[in-house]
């Protein structure tokens, strides 16, 4: 990080963990660029910018390398640098392995893993030039222990961990750090869609007996962005689910 107020880029920022992260970072930032897949509606956007006037949104599908590169280049063109990147964009297409199509398997990897790489690559180039910067990839506990019906999601999140550790080694020579956060069950649209029986069963596996909140993951992301002697690590935030 520089001595100036930082510039952040957060992907998948329209809702959930991404939006909570934007709201966490905005008060301390010069600017926060929110990457969204579709424009945020006018009424919601007006309310958001009334509270956080130093945010903007850029539409891009991070799974498309050209769009991802344009997203990063536009951020740099407008603000001169990127001090912190949060790779949060992700999708799910759940199905048992024997029923999962190759199309659905690849679609999840394309957004969750390749998309992170697509944004990370040009951002890392800028950070190496700056000789500073921090990257946080949003992984998942599913990447560590798997989950029935989520082979594609688990593979993508496990891949993010390997990507994180490699970038941490490559970036360290110029003081660029890269870490990952691995959320457990977080109260978002994804978990809201789960059948109630599965929700209740999952709660029995969490020592704290509740789902986490997006704001709690945003707090962990904030910590990883700003702890200057931490790199190549995966911070698990799951209510004790995987201890």
Describe the structure.
This protein has 243 residues and is of the alpha/beta class. The protein has a single domain (7-236), classed as Rossmann fold (3-Layer(aba) Sandwich). 47% of the residues lie in helices and 15% in strands. It contains nine helices and seven strands; from the N terminus they run βαβαβαβαβααβαααβ. The chain has helices at 16-25, 42-51, 65-79, 102-130, 142-145, 151-171, 189-192, 196-203, 214-226; strands spanning 7-10, 31-36, 55-59, 84-87, 133-138, 176-183, 234-237. It has a seven-stranded parallel β-sheet, sandwiched between helices. β1 (7-10), α1 (16-25) and β2 form a beta-alpha-beta unit. α1 packs across α9 (214-226), α3 (65-79) runs parallel beside α4 (102-130) and α4 (102-130) packs parallel to α6. 41% of the residues are buried. The mean pLDDT is 96.
In terms of quaternary structure, the protein is single chain
Weakly predicted, low-confidence segments: none
User: How many DSSP helices?
Assistant: 9
Globally, the shape reads: globular
The overall pLDDT, averaged over residues, is 96
CATH C-level category? Alpha Beta
Distance between the termini: 32 Å
Structural class: alpha/beta
Instruction: Please indicate the count of domains.
Output: 1
Q: What is the chain-wise order of helices and strands? A: EHEHEHEHEHHEHHHE
CATH superfamily: NAD(P)-binding Rossmann-like Domain
């Amino acid at each position: 990080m520089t001595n100036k107020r930082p510039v952040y880029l957060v992907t998948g920022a329209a809702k959930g963990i991404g939006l909570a992260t934007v709201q966490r970072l905005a008060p301390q930032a010069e600017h926060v660029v929110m990457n969204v897949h579709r424009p945020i509606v006018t009424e919601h956007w007006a309310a958001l910018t009334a509270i956080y006037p130093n945010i903007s949104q850029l539409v891009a599908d991070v799974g498309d390398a050209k769009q991802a590169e344009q997203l990063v280049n536009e951020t740099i063109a407008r603000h001169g640098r990127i001090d912190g990147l949060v790779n949060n964009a992700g999708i799910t297409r759940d199905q048992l392995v024997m029923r999962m199509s190759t199309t659905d398997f690849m679609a999840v990897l394309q957004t969750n893993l390749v998309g992170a790489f697509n944004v990370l690559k040009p951002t890392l180039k800028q950070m190496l030039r700056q000789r500073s910067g921090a990257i946080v990839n949003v992984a998942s506990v599913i990447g560590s222990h798997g989950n029935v019906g989520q082979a594609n999601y688990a593979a993508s999140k496990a891949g993010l961990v390997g990507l994180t550790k490699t970038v941490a080694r490559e970036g360290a020579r110029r003081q660029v750090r890269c870490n990952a956060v691995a959320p457990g069950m977080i109260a978002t649209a994804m978990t809201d869609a789960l059948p109630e029986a599965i929700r209740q069963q999952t709660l029995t596996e969490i020592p704290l007996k509740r789902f986490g909140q997006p704001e709690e993951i945003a707090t962990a992301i904030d910590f990883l962005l700003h702890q200057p002697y931490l790199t190549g690590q995966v911070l698990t935030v799951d209510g004790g689910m995987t201890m």
